[in-house]
Amino acid sequence: MSDPAGDPAAPPLRSIGGLRALGELRRPSGPGLRRALTVWRRSLQARVLVSTLLLSTLVVTVVGWYLLRQTRDGLLSHRVDAVVAESASEAQDARARLASAPGTDTDASSQAKDLAEPIIARGEIRGYGVILAGPADGGADGGATYTPGLDRASVPASLRARVTAGAGPAWTYTEIRREVDGREVAEPGIVVGTPLTLPADSRTYVLYLLYPLDEQRETLSLVTQALLTTGGLLVLLVAGVALVVTRQVVTPVRMARRVAERLAAGRLQERLLVRGEDDLARLAMSFNQMATNLQRQIRQLEELSRVQRRFTADVSHELRTPLTTVRMAGDVLHDARADFDPATARAAELLQTELDRFETLLADLLEISRFDAGAVVLDLDDVNLVDVAHRIVDATRALAAQRGVEVRVSAPDRACLAEADGRRIERIVRNLVANAIDHAGLGSETAPARVVVHVAADDQSAAIAVRDYGLGLAPGEAAMVFNRFWRADPARARSTGGTGLGLAISLEDAHLHGGWLQAWGRPGEGAQFRLTLPRHVRGTLRRSPLPLVPDDAVEARREVRTEASS
């Protein structure tokens, strides 16, 4: 009997084994999606739980699909074997009855009816339909006898073609359509076609037996429901196990995170609770030991820092008394230097100069110690940066003339106000201008070196930039110039008597105001230092009204050309 493989008239296979989706996922809203993504990124437990659910669902789905497929194939294979055997028995019985028919019977229609009626009666009892079609060369279903209410179109055309072509008995899957209580019902089934020859006319007729698959469909539906229920419970069970396991692992990790956050916030006495002797307990013990060692080292560093600050403050303070005595003696010697020989007079002048530098160094050390101790308080007022720039330039004009440096101010006509401590702002600008004069190079009356002080302001900030055209800064030095006691060229003498703490103190003053103090420089192009202050002390700086890279620098001109060409 032929195999139905490849037969296009076999939809019941798919209709029996098909699975429907149980629901649809609602598309999350914008904030909900963002919250879900945040939880996914931050929660290790959520990622493990969701991954376990997805993987277990995938495994259960694949296994369930395989079991359903195997169950369906087994049920259909068993049913096909039973159907083929029963149809062969019916065909053999029909041939036996035809063989015993009297040879004088020449009414083919009556003979076909007598042959089909007992088979139809047995089919109604056993649950299968019957169609006796023929003759095969007399057109489709000409004079067919069939079970009442059965649609003869339930027999696929492909099966008719195979049987009438002389291929012998054949079977295939089909959809059996019949009329029940005035309505048409369709159900999957198997149809078997067997050719028979009637003695009345010696022509070939085809006996089609149509067997429904109701029992197999109900069995498969029951198995599918059982698999879905079992699979759902299994997924929930796996999710519960994953939740319990992840909680056992993640809870100590979360506790360690909270304790680490408290340690980072300065609560150095926080420790993890140690329970048991497993790996997590040993991890907690190691964490506590690390926290204890860290606390001990931090306290040692704090004590060392406190001792250093106290030492610096005490030394600076204690040196003021002997310095005052030495200063008085130095002033006497300096005033009387005209009566000394040249060598002694020069020594008196050098003593006076170094005493001035020593006194400045002590003042700077005391100021640094105040910053380190956090004891600095701002005396706030509205400060006009344009006036500050002019005052500092006028105060340093003599020093600039001595070095052959021309210092000028480039500022708008309007005031550039900022809420700041005027004394500290003037000290910053004085340090920047003195530093620029010191590094601007030696000029002459015909070609003086230049230092330009730029001032500008906008709605949020105000800035002062000091530009010189001296040797400049090597790569990497712009970030080092604010270090304490750092000098670009230690072998070069300072004409301004600097202590090496001026820029460090200026940086602390800028930070105290919530501002920026930045440096730019290139070898051979000079340098520029920019102080940016918020218009209000508690304001937030986002940009500066003055560029850090000067407009006349090669770097800035190259960027302008690039933008113009693009």
Protein model, in words:
With 566 residues, the chain is an alpha+beta fold. The protein folds into 3 domains: 1-18 and 34-214, Beta-Lactamase, CATH 3.30.450; 287-376, Helix Hairpins; 377-565, Histidine kinase-like ATPase, C-terminal domain (Heat Shock Protein 90, 2-Layer Sandwich), CATH 3.30.565.10. 54% of the residues lie in helices and 16% in strands. It has 13 helices and 12 strands. It has helices spanning 12-17, 30-42, 44-99, 108-126, 157-167, 214-264, 279-335, 342-373, 385-395, 397-403, 422-439, 502-512, 554-565, and strands at 129-133, 145-146, 170-180, 183-198, 203-212, 380-384, 405-410, 417-421, 449-457, 461-468, 516-522, 526-534. Strands 2-1-5-4-3 form a 5-stranded antiparallel sheet, sandwiched between helices. It has a 5-stranded mixed sheet with strand order 7-9-10-12-11. The longest helix is centred in the middle third of the chain and has 57 residues, at 279-335.
Supply database-style keywords.
Beta-Lactamase, single chain, 566 residues, 5-stranded antiparallel β-sheet, Helix Hairpins, disordered N terminus, 54% helix, 16% strand, alpha+beta
Number of helical segments with 4 or more residues? 13
By DSSP, the count of extended strands is 12
> How many structurally independent domains?
3
- Gyration radius from CA atoms, angstroms: 51 Å
- Average pLDDT reading: 80
Task: List the strand order in the largest sheet.
Answer: 2-1-5-4-3
Task: Report the β-strand fraction as a percent range.
Answer: 15-25%
Estimate the global geometry from the Cα principal axes. Answer: rod-shaped
Measured as a percent range, the helix fraction is 40-55%
Structural class: alpha+beta
The secondary-structure element order is HHHHEEHEEEHHHEHHEEHEEHEEH
Q: Roughly how many Å apart are the termini?
A: 80 Å
CATH architecture of the largest domain: 2-Layer Sandwich
Poorly predicted regions are: 2-29, 493-497
Summarize the main sheet: 5 strands, antiparallel
- CATH third-tier fold name of the largest domain: Beta-Lactamase
**Top-tier CATH class of the largest domain:** Alpha Beta
